[in-house]
Records
---
Amino acid sequence: MYRAAFFASLALPLFAATETPTFTRDIAPILFNNCTSCHRPGEIGPMPLTSYKEIRPWAKAIQASVQTRKMPPWHADPHYGKFANDSRLKDSDVALITAWAKAGAPEGDPKLLPALPQFAEGWQIGKPDAIYSIPEFTLSNSGYDEQMNFVVETNLKEDVWVEAIEIRPGNRKVVHHAHVWLESATPAAPKPKAASTTPRVSYTMREGTRAFARPDAPVIDDGCSHPNGGMWPGASPSELGSILASFVPGKAPEQWPTGIAKKIPAGSKLKFTIHYSKTTGKEEKDITSVGLRFAKQPPTQELRRIDLHNTAFLIPANDENHVVTACYTFQEDADVLSYLAHMHYRGKSMKFEAIYPDGRMETLIDIPKYDFEWQTKYLNATPVRIPKGTRIKLTATFDNSPNNRYNPDPSKVIRWGDNTVDEMMDGWFEFVTPKTQ
Ligand code: HEC
């Protein structure tokens, strides 16, 4: 009796563990749902993974990529936060893929093959209600990267609310990142100037379209030890009310939960700021576009965004682990929807911490292995309440050593600049003002 029960309880797991997983029954559902969004023709994955024939030669590489958690790409530490777009595979899926690859990657019964997911061609946000494009731009093949501005009329006759925005680079080989800003038809009334006894100093300079820190600008690595958190003396992080959308490698289009939308007033213009990299050595052409999907009805909450940054850091040559902080205190309650870390090639990690008014400290998100190619917008599974008076601390590390395979030149001292060969230290927050109950 005892013995029978013992074997009965073991029977199921033993059976499952010894049965070889097959492609059509066990593996295709995992790979089709988690990999083909990028690994299909025309997308960013280097090879399509849409059939047994395509997948079979990659079995060992697939096993390695899921075991090391290199694929699907996800760079946040699972200990902190809960994210709606968390793409990590379940441990049981990783175990199935491993067992299948070890068993020689058998195909199994072709009749069990599931259908491939349906993907929208072209625009990921669905059919846009309006599309605006820059005039064709020709990028020369010599000199520095270009930081270009283009202003495009919307010709909107009335205010619209947008619930999804997608920037589509015309030429992905050279569009390194792109932002679209809102320029309102009627310029805002000039703000009264605060009386100031100190002369205005500019800490940045320009060379062509490249802006960067003056070599003699003050150095503030520990922004949190400074009154304004690590920005240039006298500056403070301002809310980027006018930024509409951003494209950076690996980032999905802007789409917000139902009821949250961004307003575009009648007559607005759209300003595209596009950073072009001269990576191909050839003259290149680009027509980048932005697509807007309108909300069917006015939102209950307006989307807002603030970008925190340290602009005054200095990363010594060859420094493998240079720490830079930035701090900012929220002046009102906020429900935070997403975070994004933005650095360039030397960015190594970034942590976002909240120090609440009662002194409690919490890690909101930790990105221990920042990857310039994967600037994911991390969407909170539920909005995170940041009460008024909460201090946000961003801690970044930079690797300016030869061990960093992306590092263009470890012998250079690195400061803030908008070119990729310079650096940035930015943490973005999208938020809404909490509903009053
Ligand atoms: C968000 C897009 C995306 C998703 C989702 C994705 N991949 Fe990839 N994959 C890429 C890109 C881009 C590369 C090439 C650059 C790189 O290695 O980072 C790549 C490279 C690979 C490689 C090449 C070998 C290696 O490790 O460098 C393998 C194998 C791979 N992916 C397997 C998978 C599998 C299996 C899944 C699903 C479980 C998956 N990928 C999901 C974008 C993606």
---
Amino acid sequence: MTQKWNPNTYLIFEKDRSRPAIDLLSQISLDTDGGIVDLGCGPGNITKIIRDLWPNRSLTGIDISEEMINEAKKKYQKTDIHWMKADIAHWVSDEKLALIFSNAALQWIPNHEILFLKIIHNLKSNGILGIQIPLTKELNFQKAIRKITCLPKWKNYFKNVKQINNSIKINKIYQILSNDCKDINIWKTNYYHILEGNSPVTEWIKGTGLTPYLSTLSNQNKNIFLDEYKELINNMYPKQKDKKTILKMKRLFIVAKKK
Ligand SMILES: C[S@@+](CC[C@H](N)C(=O)[O-])C[C@H]1O[C@@H](n2cnc3c(N)ncnc32)[C@H](O)[C@@H]1O
């Protein structure tokens, strides 16, 4: 099923969404020559940060969404970044790379054990894998998604929706990576995004976790669904005295160097 990603909705929270990518980049240094790929590059704003960090390497942003790739092409047309519409699950690089970066995208692809191995295969010796995956399973907004999408009223619309895959265990990740990689650096962090607006959590999730569900609905049903979702999460995300809302996001980071 095609997911309709909306770059404008996604970029409303650009500053908050960029922070984990910047934190991940701060742990990456490259000591081998070669190109860079940003897997699931979205609207390209993080790819542009990568370009500024390493201005002289070939750099490709890859995304499955036509809308996202078009936005990146339009916004960064004056750069020499290459943009490619492709599915990460089937992506193979033409050449071995110095850095494979992916921020908040691999949770959409099933079977991480096989996926990680396939991705690592595209790295040169001493090339770096840098990944951030949101761990949303136990977070309130995700529980609310599970609850509403199982209601008899809605569940038939979502029969073909791909579920987010982020339940991989640290031991398992280490086991997969350690055969081919060294200097493995894994950490988890909670981010507390302070958001403004009436229903900012729904607005945030509209641009990510709700995207596959909303893609299946007519405009009229989308509005009804979103109103019901807002109602469901209102009490989970109370407004602070200054009318702002705190959104907790848990994130897993992995940096590893190919042997
Ligand atoms: C939450 S956005 C992250 C965008 C960007 N990496 C960032 O940090 O701002 C997730 C992106 O992953 C892309 N994506 C999801 N599944 C994909 C797949 N199988 N292959 C390529 N891109 C995919 C979506 O189209 C979307 O642009």
